[in-house]
């Protein structure tokens, strides 16, 4: 009996060790694969093909069985004819525009958070498009952002300027909101459209922070802060702020606002910049009157209208996010939504 128990215990240990090794062998390649793909990937979607597929399904649904049979027969003939044409012309393609039936409309999305972290994907998308864009191609940016940090949105606007430098027309569509840093991006476009009730403008700069100095003093807590440079710190969270520091902080804000105004006016010289740069925002129809945008439209209608002339490709760079990244993104996104509610 003792021998049987000993053997059973030995067998259990052996099975446990083998199972543990097997699990490790399965987990290690997964971890390696995840680390290798950490940077992310570029995804491309043919939006026009998807739209025409949906359109055909809707048409078929409205037909009776006999009509469906006739339609499918005609469709098959059409596809065979197109395939024969494509095969015939494939041999003569020499990467020249003459052999392309349609130019391309590239679509990118930017749903901006306070820290403009989405710019890391934007720069990859812009680079990908510029690597293949040809004369006649256009780019549509579907923009949604209440703005955020100056340096983040400044970089995002600079990424969009790369299209201007290469003479690739850029259209910006605002379906919901593009204010502050969001409008800084939008104004780079050759043409801006917005939905009637989209929120646009807020060409201004804001800076605020709490000060806990009195709380520290009340609890007899001393704070020592040393700086080298007269304006290394202007306003602080825990130190005692001075009127001189406050004045310097306001001066920095005004200087940033001036740079913002100059940038917008440079991109859209027809604007009466002094009338629209007081930090106020407007709805789409009002923004059109003030020439902040060029027409009232939605991104959906624009894309459908363009399909007859362009093949439509959505370009999206997706980062592989860690759990911490996802958590911080949710927090940042919630703050952005809160700010949007405050504005509206």
Automatic annotation (TrEMBL):
This protein's record includes keyword Nucleotide-binding: no
Subcellular location: Cell membrane
Signal peptide start-end: none
Top enzyme category: hydrolase
Name of one Pfam family that matches: Peptidase_S49_N
GO cellular component terms attached to this protein's record: plasma membrane
Domain Peptidase S49: 163-309
UniProt family annotation: Belongs to the peptidase S49 family.
NCBIfam families from the UniProt entry: PRK11778.1
Official protein name in the record: Probable protease SohB
Origin species: Candidatus Erwinia haradaeae
